[in-house]
Amino acid sequence: MAQYATTLENAARCLRGFIESGISSDEIFVGIAMFKDKQHAISLLAYISIHSWGNLPPQSSTLQAEVKDAQKVRERTYIFAQFLVILHPLVSKYQGVSSIDFVFDYEGAYVDWPFSREGSSLRLVKQNIIDEREGAIFEELGKLIHDEAIDLQSSRVLNLYQTLFSGRDPLDVIFTLPDGR
């Protein structure tokens, strides 16, 4: 793994299998923490998606904090990718041929949009993955896409994109965790 001989996805799948078979998650964390390339270690640990690593040595607290932030960014980018596929006309048009992996096609993003009722964004707000403003916009999109009387190409729906990014660089917004992370 430290020599990039496998993908992050395959390595994470294998390591989750080790954890399920009884190897402690803290042992895996400590082993990966020894990688020379710390960014690769953080990426792999974030990809494994373990929320509690057990009893880690005190010297790993900085790395553990970086992994938690990376996990939040991973979840945040997943939500924003889904948002972009639903609302951005060029993304929805070209996501099938793009080199950027948006995880969803339009239909999948639309059907699986998780913010369909009031309060559905609260967990992510509490975890500082999204802020309250973003959560309100995501919930508004959820109400609109599940209302059959609403045209999904209407300015009311499409303006949610503008409202979310408010003239800011979308990539800066997508990859920046809320304050107080």
For the sheet with most strands, the description reads:
none
- Proportion of residues in β-strands: under 5%
Radius of gyration: 19 Å
Looking at the structure, what is the overall shape? elongated
Mean pLDDT: 88
Q: Which stretches are poorly predicted, pLDDT < 50 over at least 5 residues? A: none
Question: Quick one: how many beta strands?
Answer: 0
Helix content: 55-70%
Structural class of the secondary structure composition? mainly alpha
Query: What is the element string, with H for helices and E for strands?
Result: HHHHHHHHHH
Helix count? Answer: 10
Distance between termini? 29 Å
Please provide a written account of the structure.
This protein is mostly helical and about 180 residues long. About 60% of the residues lie in helices and about 0% in strands. The chain has helices at about 10-20, 25-35, 40-50, 60-85, 90-95, 105-110, 120-125, 130-145, 155-165, 170-175. Helix 3 (about 40-50) packs across helix 4 (about 60-85) and helix 8 packs antiparallel against helix 9 (about 155-165). The longest helix has 27 residues, at about 60-85. The two termini are about 30 Å apart. About 25% of the residues are buried. The mean pLDDT is about 90.
Topology at a glance:
Layout lengths: L7 H13 L4 H9 L4 H11 L12 H27 L1 H6 L11 H7 L9 H5 L5 H14 L9 H11 L4 H5 L7
State the gist of this model.
The chain is mostly helical and 181 residues long. It has 10 helices and no strands. Helix 1 packs across helix 3, helix 4 crosses helix 6 (106-112) and helix 8 packs antiparallel against helix 9.
What keyword list fits this structure?
181 residues; mainly alpha; 10 helices; elongated
